[in-house]
């Protein structure tokens, strides 16, 4: 399991959903995305440490410079501010994500980190996953605790049965061997990108899914051309150092011609003559 864990907290005070408990390993790092309402976009966000709200200590704010083991950033577009805690210790257990309210009580939500020296009680193979548009994705959620099994998307909905859908994406949940349940998302779309989490009882562990568009034919051609040229430069330089300048000059020339053709294809519609020209350049 990776040392750096990206942990998702659903703040009931901000989104109307309960956050549960997060089990993490001592010495690791945690990134906690906190979803907030549209009305708080321009407000200062911060992290406060302590079990009791009235006596917790300010740790880091979005209007101050990050320092030490803690950092914070605010994404106004997605309405998520993210707090990162590095090098977790046993005392890193009680925190509050909060939004400052001028002239009123701050909006806040308590969350608990269960820091263990052993394997966390709920975890996944990878917290960050990238797939292409139209692909299927299977996530293995390992657990040692009991309780209801869920697969949820941040701020949207959950699937609690063997099958369902989230924001138009089909979701299937199946129980595997050795205390693991498998979640399959079928027919991914770019709109499927975002934060999800496995849930077992009161524990949650996040997965961030990024869905990208399938590369176009032109992009594949340019990539193959660049790789071909780079390989020839490396091989020439290795066998004959004097040829390095000539090889680099050739590479630069080919790249410049390829860029020129790319601009031509963007300004004009595709035609057979342009395609033949591109083939001639690649052959040279």
UniProtKB/TrEMBL annotation:
Residues 19-116, 126-212 form the Immunoglobulin domain. InterPro entries: CD300_family_receptors, Ig-like_dom_sf, Ig-like_fold, Ig_sub. The chain crosses the membrane at residues 244-265. Keywords: Membrane, Signal, Transmembrane, Transmembrane helix. It is found in: Membrane. One of its GO terms (cellular component) is plasma membrane. One of its GO terms (molecular function) is transmembrane signaling receptor activity. It comes from the Eukaryota. Residues 1-20 form the signal peptide. The keyword Transmembrane helix applies. The keyword Transferase does not apply. This is Immunoglobulin domain-containing protein. It comes from Sander lucioperca (Pike-perch).
């Amino acid at each position: 399991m990776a040392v750096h864990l990206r942990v998702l907290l659903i703040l009931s005070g901000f989104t109307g959903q309960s956050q549960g408990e997060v089990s993490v390993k001592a010495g690791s790092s945690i990134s906690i995305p906190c979803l907030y309402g549209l009305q708080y976009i321009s407000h200062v966000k911060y992290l406060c440490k302590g079990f009791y709200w009235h006596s917790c200590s300010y740790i880091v704010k979005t209007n101050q410079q990050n320092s030490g083991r803690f950092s914070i950033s605010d994404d106004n577009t997605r309405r998520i501010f993210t707090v990162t805690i590095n090098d977790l210790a046993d005392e890193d257990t009680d925190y509050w994500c909060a939004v400052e309210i001028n002239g009123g009580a701050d909006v806040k939500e308590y969350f608990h980190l269960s820091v263990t020296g052993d394997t966390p009680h709920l975890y996944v193979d990878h917290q960050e996953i990238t797939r292409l548009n139209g692909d299927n994705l299977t996530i293995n959620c390992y657990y040692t605790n009991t309780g209801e099994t869920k697969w949820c998307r941040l701020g949207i909905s959950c699937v609690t049965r063997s099958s369902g859908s989230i924001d138009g994406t089909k979701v299937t949940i199946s129980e595997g061997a050795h205390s693991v349940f498998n979640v399959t998302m079928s027919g991914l779309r770019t709109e499927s990108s975002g934060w999800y989490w496995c849930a077992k009882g009161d524990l949650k562990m996040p997965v961030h899914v990024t869905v990208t568009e399938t590369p176009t034919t032109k992009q594949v051609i340019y990539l193959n051309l660049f790789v071909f040229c780079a390989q020839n430069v490396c091989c020439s330089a290795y066998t004959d150092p004097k040829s390095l300048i000539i090889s680099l000059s050739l590479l630069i020339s080919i790249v410049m011609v390829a860029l020129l053709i790319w601009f031509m294809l963007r300004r004009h519609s595709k035609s057979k003559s342009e395609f033949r020209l591109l083939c001639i350049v690649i052959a040279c």
